[in-house]
Amino acid sequence: MFKQIRLFIHKWMIWYSAGNRWWIAPIAGILFSLCQPPFNHETHPTLVGFPFLSFLVVVPLLLFSIEPTTKRAFQNTYLFGITASLSTFYWIANVMVDGLWPVIMAGLGLMTLIFGLIFPLYGLLCRYVRRRFPSGTWLLFPALWVVVEYGKTLTEISFPWAFLGYAMVPILPFAQAGALTGVYGISFFIVAVNTILFEMLVSLKKEQPAKKERTLLITLAALFVMITLWGQIRLSRHGNFEKKSTLSLIQNNIDQAHWNGNRSLDTAMTITEKMVYKAGAENPDLIIFPESGIYCYLERQWRRKLQVIHWYDSLKTPLLIGTLHFERGNENPHYKYSVYNAVLLLDSSNQQFKRYFKINLVPFSETLPFEGIFPLLSRVNLGESDFSRGKEETVFNVNNTDLKCAPFICYEIIYPNYVRRRVTAGANLLVNVTNDGWFGKSTAPFHHATMARMRAIENGVSLARCANSGISMFVDPVGRVIEKSKLYTRAVLTQPVPIEKIPTLYRLWGDWVVYLSLVLVFGSLLFSLVAKLKIINRDKS
Q1: Within 99-163, where are the H helices?
Q2: CA-CA distance, 11 to 201, in Å (whole number)?
Q3: Is 153:510 a contact under the CB 8 Å cutoff?
Q4: Is there a contact between 398 and 288 (Cβ–Cβ < 8 Å)?
C-alpha cells in the first residue's frame, strides 16, 4: 500500500514538473481558508477533519517556492496568495455603506493583492533559506512563518487576522498548547509538520530515501499526542471553578442603519430596554452590551443618558455599554472634536460613567493610517469614521468587587500581547464587545469569535463576548464555551462565569516563541552573511 502511494506521488510530481501547471496554485490557495472556522466539528460533525488540513495547506506553497526559476516561483506563490487572501477576506464585500460600495470593492481588491504578496515573500525567503541551510528547514521555515504572522500585528495598517494556529482551537485538548506558547507556537508546530511533509515529497520525486524526514515526522506525531494528552489532563484539572460572577449579554441584533433619527432611536431603545429588564430578572453582577449597543453619543444626549441611569437605578446592576463619545478639541488641527468608539461602565449611583476609548482602530474603516504623523491625511475621505485613539489600557474594577474586567472593542481582541498586558495589569475577565453585523452570514464572525477564544486559553481567564448580531458567548479559562448565541437573533445570555485566573506560561513570558523565531531567522541570516564574507576574503587573498 505504501509503495503504491509513493509511486502515485512520484508520478504526480513528475507530471506537475513537466509543464507550467499554474492553475494548480490558485486552487491550492482556496484550500488554505478551509482549515479555519466554521469548518470544524463544532459546526457539523462531518467537518471534523477540516482543522487538520492546516497540516497540509502550506505544502503546496513550499513546492511552488522551489520552481526551476525565481520568476515562476514568484508567479505561482503569488497566485496561491491571492486566492488564499480572497477566500479568507471575501466577507469585506458584505460591508454595505451608502455610496461607498465601489470604494469597498476597490479596497477588497487592493487588500487581496497586498496581503497576497505575503505568500511569495515567504516562499522566496524559504527558497533562499533552503539553499543555504537545507538541513535546517524544519526549524527555519516555521520560524519564518511566525515572524511573518507577528509582522501583521505591527504598524497602523496591522491586520492580524486568521493566523494558521487558530485552525486548531476547536481541537480543544491540543489548543491548550496556547497556554504555553500562545497562538504563535501552534502555528510554528503546524508549519513544522508541513515542512517535513514537503521535504518528504521532494525526496520521493528524486527517488531518494527520506529517513531523516520520517524520523522527524514520527517525533512530531508523538509530540502532538503528548500535547493532546497533556491538554486533556489540563481540561480535567480545571473542570470546576469556585469563584464565579453571573454575567448577562445583550445581543440586541439591531442594524446600525436603524438607529438613525429620533424615531428609529426610540424604537431601538425600547427593544434594548426590554432585553435589559429580562437580563436584570436573573440578578446578574454585570450586564454587557455589544459595540454600539446604544448607537448614539450617550453622555451627550441627556434624555438617553437619563434612560440608561434609570435602568441602573431600577435594577441596581452595573451596565457595560458600547456606545460613542466625543470631546471638544483635538490634537489634529483639522478636527474640532475628538470622536471615540467607547465602552462606558455605570456601576454606582453617582450617575458618573467610567470610560474606555478604543486604542487599536481598524485601518481605513475607523481611521486613516498615519494620520497622527501626517495631519494633512485628515482631508482625505474614504468613508472612514475618523475616530480618535484612546490612550489608556483600562481595567474596570466593577462596583469595587472582585470582578475586574478588561474591555476590548471589536478587533482589539485579536492582538495577543495587547490582551495579555491587560491581564497582567490585574484583569480577571476579558470582555470583547463587537459588531460583526457588517459582514453578513460569512466566515468572518466565526473567525473573530475563535480568535477571541484563543485569548482566554493563552491568558487563563474567562471571556465574555457580546456581539450585536452574534456570535455572543461565554468562554472559561481553558477555552470551553459555556454558552453561545446564533447569528442574527435577539438573545439574552446569562451564566455564572469563572473569574479565577489559572497560571499560563504565555501570560508569564509573552511572545517568547516570536522572539525565539526572530533569533533563529536573523541568526541564520547573519551566519550566512559571515560565511559569504569569508569566502569573498578568501578568494581575494
Answers
A1: 101-116, 118-132, 137-151
A2: 11
A3: no
A4: no
Residue type, 510: G
State phi, psi for 359 to the nearest 5 degrees. Answer: -100, -50
Same domain, 96 and 182: yes
State the CB neighbour count (10 A cutoff) for residue 338. 19
If asked whether residues 421 and 498 sit together in one domain, one would say: yes
Note down the domain range covering 205: 2-237+512-536
Amino acid present at 40:
N
At 235-274, the pLDDT tens digits run: 999 989 999 999 999 999 987 665 565 567 888 899 999 9
Say which residue, 46 or 537, is predicted with more confidence: 46
In sequence order, the 6+-apart residues with CB closer than 8 A to the CB of 39 are 47, 50, 51
According to DSSP H, which parts of 253-369 are helical? 262-280, 302-315
> How far apart (Å, rounded) are the C-alpha atoms in residues 537 and 540?
5
CB 318 within 8 A of CB 311: no
For residues 24 and 139, state if they share a domain.
Answer: yes
Which residue has cell 448614539?
Answer: 296
Contacts of 155 (CB under 8 A, 6+ apart): 369
Residues 176 and 261 grouped into a single domain: no
Which residue do the cell numbers 469595587 mark? Answer: 400
Q: Which residue is associated with the grid cell 492580524?
A: 160
Per-residue DSSP letters for 329-350? Answer: --SSTT-SEEEEEEEEEE-STT
Q: 329: buried, middle or exposed (CB in 10 Å: 19+, 13-18, 0-12)? A: exposed
Q: In this structure, how many other beta carbons lie within 10 angstroms of the beta carbon of residue 177?
A: 25
Q: Residue 485: is it exposed, middle or buried by C-beta count within 10 angstroms (0-12/13-18/19+)?
A: buried
Cell of 407: 474591555
Cβ atoms of 132 and 524 within 8 Å: the answer is: yes
Place of cell 442594524: 255
Amino acid at 218: I
175 in Cβ contact with 231 (< 8 Å): yes
Euclidean distance between CA atoms 14 and 473, whole angstroms: 50
Q: Which stretch of DSSP H or E encloses residue 182?
A: helix 178-205
What is the C-alpha to C-alpha distance for residues 409 and 390, in angstroms, rounded to an integer?
11
Q: What integer pLDDT is reported at residue 333 of this predicted model?
A: 62
pLDDT tens profile 186-210: 999 999 999 999 998 888 777 667 6
